[in-house]
Write a structure and sequence with these properties.
Elements (H helix, E strand, L loop, with lengths): L1 E7 L2 E8 L2 E10 L4 H15 L3 E12 L1 H17 L2 E5 L3 H17 L6 H39 L6 H11 L4 H23 L8 H39 L2 H7 L4 H38 L4 H11 L2 H27 L7 H31 L2
Helix pairs in contact: 1-2, 2-3, 4-9, 5-9, 6-7, 6-9, 7-9, 7-10, 7-11, 7-12, 9-10, 9-11, 11-12
Length: 380
């Protein structure tokens, strides 16, 4: 039989080893000041004697805080790894309750091992449910938006005209600089790339035709829509998301206002009118960039002007204008929807903003594909 006595900052611990059993008797306080030392003392004795069973007698423990309870919990969790059985005897009821509560929290935090097949099924199911929920929200929001537009058509005075002009200024006029720059650079790049290929056929003059058709029909509205989604669509989601977190939207509902008509309709109308105008400037500055390339290649500006006028037909211009208007409605509406879907939390607004940009770009690409098919059959 071996025995030992240790003192540790208000705690008294006795060790007694009988055969394959190690008895540990604790006295006094077990708290944050001495729990670390007690842990090392107990584990040192366990390592020294290699017992099959460890019995901790806590009948004389008169104080135990969270650190002391954590000591008992950690010793219990180590018994399976160290191949011994640990028993805690005579622990006061209030300390037992703390110990059980801590063990419960640890079990909840411990993630069980998931079968890969079960994990795949669960993730697929969650994705399907999320898709159904997103579809339902989109259809519901579309119905509310359509109803709000219908009520405004019947009673135009319901439209917040002043707010609509303010939003149009922020989303349109303030975006003129970046739209012009992107359009100019894109026209420059497109003209250079087209000239490289057409030079093989001695047809560099047709660079002006290719750039004109590309900008007016496809790339002008599309590039403007991408910029609008990144700049204004995200702003709409952030504004409405912040209002959702601050419970301002709930306050509007309490006062009898319809949030969709009050907040979303002005933004959608602004997007409907602003994006086609921005698209025109994108195409215009793109043509300026292409004209500079043609001038560098040795073609006079009057020749470039003649080719642009001959390539720019009215159906192509109107087709691009209609595209831009539809893109404006889609991007503005999805930005408002993501704002209304904002949840609580510090990252909620950032998540909604990101989703608004991604959804806006995806919808723009899908709409562009639909328009391409429609214009093909209409021979536009």
């Amino acid at each position: 039989m071996n025995s030992g006595v240790e003192n540790n900052r208000g705690a008294h611990v006795d060790f007694e080893s009988v055969g394959r059993e190690l008895r540990v008797r604790l006295c006094g306080r077990v708290d944050s000041y001495n729990s670390g030392g007690l842990y090392f003392s107990i584990t040192r004795q366990i390592k020294k004697h290699s017992p099959g069973e460890v019995v901790i007698d806590a009948s004389e423990v008169d104080y135990c805080d969270v650190a002391g309870v954590a000591l008992f919990s950690w010793l219990l969790s180590q018994q399976q790894k160290k191949s011994y059985k640990l028993i805690i005897q005579n622990l006061r009821e209030d300390f037992k309750l703390l110990l059980e509560r801590l063990k419960t929290e640890q079990r909840e935090k411990t993630k069980p091992t998931i079968n890969p097949i079960s994990g795949f099924i669960n993730s697929t199911g969650r994705g399907a449910c999320l898709l159904v929920e997103e579809t339902f929200d989109f259809v519901s929001f579309t119905g509310e938006l359509t109803s709000a537009f219908g009520s405004i058509l019947l009673k135009p005075r319901r439209l917040r005209l002043k707010d609509t002009f303010v939003i149009a200024e922020l989303a349109g006029v303030n975006a003129f600089g970046i739209v012009s720059l992107i359009g100019f650079l894109f026209g420059l790049i497109l003209a250079f790339q087209a000239a490289i290929t057409l030079k093989l056929f001695a047809a560099e003059i047709y660079t002006a035709d290719l750039v004109t058709i590309s900008l007016l029909r496809v790339m002008g509205p599309f590039m403007t829509a991408i910029i609008f989604a990144a700049r204004s669509g995200s702003a709409f989601a952030a504004e409405l998301g912040t209002m959702k977190i601050n419970e301002e939207i709930d306050a509007l509902k309490t006062m009898g206002f319809e949030p969709v008509r009050f907040l979303a309709v002005p933004r959608v109308i602004a997007g409907f009118f602003v994006l086609p105008l921005l698209s025109i400037f994108t195409s215009l500055f793109g043509l300026i960039g292409a004209g500079i390339v043609m001038l560098v290649m040795g073609f006079p500006l009057i020749t470039f002007y003649d080719r642009v006028v001959s390539a720019a037909d009215m159906p192509g211009f109107i087709g691009g204008f209609v595209k831009a208007a539809v893109f404006g409605v889609l991007i503005s509406a999805i930005g408002c929807l993501r704002g209304f879907q904002t949840k609580q939390g510090s990252q909620a607004v950032g998540i909604s903003t990101t989703r608004a940009v991604v959804s806006g770009i995806v919808l723009t690409v899908i709409a562009e594909g639909v328009f391409a098919v429609i214009y093909y059959f209409l021979d536009i």
